[in-house]
Sequence to fold (270 residues):
Amino acid sequence: MSLTAIEQHGIVLLGCGKMGSAMLAGWLADGLSPSAVWVLDPNPSDWLQGTGVHINEGVPDAPAIALIAVKPQMMGDALPSMAALGNSNTVFLSVAAGTPISAFASALGAQSPIIRAMPNTPAAIGRGITAIVGNEIVTPAQMDMADALLRAVGQVVRLEDESQMDAVTAVSGSGPAYVFHLVETLAAAGKAEGLPADLAMALAKATVGGAGQLAEDSDENPSQLRVNVTSPNGTTQAALEVLMNEHDGFPALLKRAVKAAADRSRELAK
Ligand SMILES: NC(=O)c1ccc[n+]([C@@H]2O[C@H](COP(=O)([O-])OP(=O)(O)OC[C@H]3O[C@@H](n4cnc5c(N)ncnc54)[C@H](OP(=O)(O)O)[C@@H]3O)[C@@H](O)[C@H]2O)c1
Fold:
């Protein structure tokens, strides 16, 4: 990756919980030097302490990137430790749900390059997807640097407008939890049909994982893949008649769920 600036000037992680650790694990696996990483976190995990990165040793003078990965509620307490880096070449890269770029510009300085990103936790296994959008101070080279960094933990998409972030949060940011719940409920339904719990869970996990991979890798779109496995009057069709019901099937349910998440993201911004 084109990350020489990060190796040279360092990267700061403000907050290293679930999301920060998922991304850091991906970067270290991709070859980022632990000595280039400066973490600020009040309760560093055992995993983090074993990585060899700088922990709570302050921050370098002019890091290439400062990743902000604290909960939106903790932002007010956490951001002052970054103020000295504001209005400089350090790119602030925030993964906080619902916190708008304008909030960082107010706290860190209006001349600060700020990129808002929405990653997801499959980043921990290099299979994340991150959407990014920057303010007008961010240069194309800085945007490419953030893109390259995030690409180490999965795919990257660029948004045209920050307003798309609420919907992105609701689809891919929160989405892994919906899929985990699909696994849970598919396994429970298998158990209700008489299978032992562990067998039902093994079937559900492999089915969701395998079908997800097939949907991503196949030249055919997911609708066609679905049609391909649905014989007329067969077993799949019987289930799909329930799941595809416009009133109480997946379409209505996911529309409501995604709207609830997007609404919450808009609320957090206030
Ligand atoms: N989890 C996801 O799937 C996901 C997806 C996309 C975006 N995000 C975003 O990622 C951000 C972090 O979420 P998370 O799930 O990783 O939360 P988390 O596990 O709670 O991680 C936040 C970390 O920040 C630490 N922290 C708290 N106050 C701090 C301070 N003043 N200075 C430095 N560090 C501080 C916390 O320490 P303590 O535990 O001691 O408080 C914790 O280790 C959130 O803004 C969230 O919206 C998360």
Q: What stands out?
A: The chain has a mean pLDDT of 95. The chain is about 50% helix and 15% strand. Residues 197-217 form the longest helix (21 residues). Residues 34 and 51 are 7 Å apart (CA to CA).
